[in-house]
Structure formats: structure tokens, C-alpha cells
Write a structure and sequence with these properties.
alpha/beta; 7-stranded parallel beta sheet; 5-stranded parallel beta sheet; 12 strands; 33% helix
Length: 317
Amino acid sequence: MKIVVLDGHAANPGDLSWKPFEALGELTVYPRTAAAEVVERSKDADALLTNKVVISDEVMSQLPKLKYIGVLATGFNVVDVKAARQRGVIVTNIPAYSTDSVAQIVFAHLLNVTNHVDHYARQNRQGRWTSSPDFCYWDTPLMELSGKRLGIVGLGHIGMKVARMVRAFGMDVYAVTSKHHADLPDGILKSTLEGMLAACDVVSLHCPLTESTHHIINSETLKMMKQGAILINTGRGPLVDEQAVADALNDGSLAAYCADVLSVEPAQADGPLLACPHAYLTPHIAWATYEARVRLAKIAEDNLRAFVEGEPVNVVS
């Protein structure tokens, strides 16, 4: 079996091993693949592994040997799954490998906004504390999380992990979820979107991107939020209308927007959020801890081995 990895650098920039995949077939790994290179590099492949390289119906139509596509991520929108199904191509994904890592970055963002640790550390490297007339100083608002309300949109693996962490900080949790209220753990209050936005000091987005959740945060829903609330998005960029968020940041109605995702990635130089002083953007790194990538690689290997053995798992096609 010929196995081609189209964009291996993202998941494995060199600190992991591809050897387990070599045991399953003849392996070729490309760090990155441009759209114009996909067909040529994949033409003899029985199995493709892709993270963000798009595998369309047109591409598959030119790959008669293709039997398997392994997406090196949880989201699988880079593959035309319907076309794959019609062509008899198995498509798998990597579920729930980065739950802890994504939940962790939610709090990295939140604590950065409430305590401004990086801000003070930078100032003190420049001598600010040594020149202070007092034993301490602060020039930003400082917020205690205990007793505040945090709203979560989507209670899947990550949303539920965040909810448990929120409770440990002494915060009240409101959740917009399809789960029945009787099935929610103690301390999580089921709410409507409107009710949650109006009540919560912090809102964190963890729902999948669908037609109904596209721009779930927009100019109208932003008006429903508490004055000075904090919005966190580690889900998908298009869950928010980025121009509306930028406007809310600029007029002060939204205190901060913390995001690990944007609608277009990599970020565009003229994007509305890059110049906002209260937009805190990280470059889609929540999933990329070493531990999470080790899990991703192991699940990807297991997925491919299960396919080879005739009992595919984590199939999305």
C-alpha cells in the first residue's frame, strides 16, 4: 500500500516519528502541498493523510487508486465526504485528542485578560517596578473570577471540560446545549442563547460550525451581552462576525475578544481584528501541544491500521 502525507509539518514538525506508518506501507511525507500539487503527489496513493489540504470530488476523480483518506484533525470539512462515500473511499478523522489542550488555552486567554501577567512581566523587564514609588503598581483592571458567570455554547468534550474547570474557579456556569437539563452535572444551568448572553461575564464558544451557528455572534447578539463582557472563541473562526466583534471592541461594549481561530487562516493583514488593542489572538495553537499531537499521531496510525485490517474506525464517510 502506498501512503502519502500531504501536509505533515503541521502535526509533526520534526519532534514525532513517522515510523509506525512505514510499517503499514510505502510512506511518502510532504511537509506542505499546494493545491496545484495535490493530484500529482497523490496519483499512485492508496491512502492519503491530510490536515488542511483540500480533497475535493474533482481531485478524487483523478485518483483511481485512492481507497482511504485520513484527516489529521477532528474537523473533516477539507474532504468532500459525500463524494468520497459515492466513490467508496473511506474517510476517517481524529476525535477528542486535544480536549485538555484546548480547554487549557481557554484559561490561558481568560487569565491573561483578567490578570495581564504578560503585560506586567514586559513592563518589569523595562524597569517599571524598580522605579515604582510604591511596593506595587497596576495600570489595568484586575478581575477575580470567583462568583462571576461564564456561559458556554456547546457542551461536547471540550465544552464539558471547560465547564468543570470553570466550576473549580468558583464561577457559575450557564450552557447553551442540546443536552437535557436533567443530564447536566450539578452546577451547570441550561440556558437559551439570549438568556446566557445577558447574564454572563464571560462567553466561550465550543459548538461545531454549521449553518445555524455560522455568525452565532453578530451585531445583534453582541448587543445582548453584558457591557464589558469577555468573549472567547477556540472553536471555529466563522462562529463570529469578526467585523461586528471589532466594532464592539472599538466602542468599548465588549471588553476583550480572545481567539485561537479566525475565519481565514493564516490571518490576513487587513483583517478587522488584528489592529484591535483588546483582541487577543493566538495562531491556532490550542491543539498543538506535544501531548495532544502524540495522541493525534497514535489515533491516525490506529485508524489506518484498522482500515488495512478491514475493520475501519472513526469513519465519517
